[in-house]
Amino acid sequence: MARQGSYPKGVAKREEILEKALEVVARVGYSGTTVRQLADAVGLTQNGLLYYFGSKENLFVEILRHRDRLDDIAYGGHEGDSGDMGEGMAKFIRHNTDVPGLVQLHAGLTAEAISPEHPAHAYFQERYEVFRARGADTVRTLQAAGKIPGSVDAESLATIMLAVVDGLQTQWLYDPRIDMTEHFLRFWDQVGKLAAPEGISR
Amino acid sequence: MARQGSYPKGVAKREEILEKALEVVARVGYSGTTVRQLADAVGLTQNGLLYYFGSKENLFVEILRHRDRLDDIAYGGHEGDSGDMGEGMAKFIRHNTDVPGLVQLHAGLTAEAISPEHPAHAYFQERYEVFRARGADTVRTLQAAGKIPGSVDAESLATIMLAVVDGLQTQWLYDPRIDMTEHFLRFWDQVGKLAAPEGISR
DNA sequence: GTCTATACCTAGATAGAC
DNA sequence: GTCTATCTAGGTATAGAC
């Protein structure tokens, strides 16, 4: 079907829209942003823009996917460095502090897409699953290395960690004085202490 | 100004609307619910309903306040029983499992009301503050009783606990197989273990 | 004080011209 | 690939009946 975007111009415009949209969302906030505003920002009419993404929701999902790709490169922390799981997460959180618009978009869409019919539902559902699975894997690696006790349930810890990150972001959005990174590190510290309580090794 | 609702009939109708709205939201979901549907459910026109609450958002905030009052009575856990902080929370979470519509409403509005201009913003902001303060107080009580080490920052633990609850709810909304209560209890268990690591008291 | 009817506005989506 | 025109849905404001 010769997918749209196969022509250089279209591809470039798509990119431009993604970039600008991010800027606008960052400034205006997610719920406040309308398609028209975004269209204005790139010199298109509403429908000129929708031609590229089909719908508002689709555009926003694309923004998040775009971010995921970038983050995955920057903070992926795939191979090897699982010893620094906490520090990797902390870096990621710290980075998020600089892009409140994105965080708001993420939080907003997450909530909106809870109904299974929502166009963005699959994206988030899958994202949660992937992150939980990855997290659990890393935890198991840490357990094998003796950094986390084997008694801890890997899936559960991964789930809780994700919850902490999500939850802290919400609170931060309501009160930017809240230091997400610090709170997360305190949480992670406690997890670490479980392995080596009060300097007693066993 | 002779506030509306000073007449018995109005008061009763308000109650009825609140109840029915809850039912509808529970069934249709938050984002799917329209004012017209709610109006139909209580045998009013759209504007007949809006007469009572002014706007859609206002109505929803009222629903949440209403729930807060009920929950506060049922799971408030104010005086004395702070020793069971975790169990109290767990009960609350377990209860939420039975009212997914409410949880969805809460999650949806929380995200939507992040912009400071949103009519529900103040409600959530204040709620977070109150819950953090209350939680921190309880933590301090537990510390005084030696159930949590003094080295833990009470505010931080309260913040994290709130985050865990919020975050678990989101994941649960995306996948009801996730056992929020169990995950929360695991989390809380670990907190407890910090005080008595591996049976070593100090 | 309680409620209806009407009219209005915003915002997203669709169809078809260019 | 982009625009104009048009449609629809849903929330809101106002006037006034009961």
Throw out a few tags for this protein.
homodimer, 202 residues, mainly alpha, Arc Repressor Mutant, subunit A, Tetracycline Repressor, domain 2, 2 domains, 9 helices, elongated, DNA-binding
Give the topology.
2 copies of one chain form a homodimer.
Chain A: H1 8-28, H2 35-41, H3 46-53, H4 56-75, H5 85-97, H6 100-112, H7 121-144, H8 154-174, H9 180-195
Chain B binds a DNA duplex (18 and 18 nucleotides) through residues 2, 4-7, 9-10, 13, 34-36, 44-52, 55-56.
CATH class of the largest domain in chain A: Mainly Alpha
Strand content of chain A: under 5%
Instruction: Please report the total strand number of chain A as a whole number.
Output: 0
Described by strand count, sense and barrel closure, the largest sheet of chain A is: none
Number of helices of chain A: 9
Write down the domain tally of chain A: 2
CATH topology of the largest domain in chain A: Tetracycline Repressor, domain 2
Residue share in helices of chain A?
over 70%
Label the CATH architecture of the largest domain in chain A: Orthogonal Bundle
- Rg of chain A, rounded, reads 20 Å
Report how far the terminal alpha carbons of chain A are from each other: 63 Å
Q: What is the averaged pLDDT score of chain A? A: 90
- Assembly form of the protein: homodimer
Q: Strand pairing plus helix content of chain A: what structural class?
A: mainly alpha
- Give the helices and strands of chain A as they follow along the chain: HHHHHHHHH
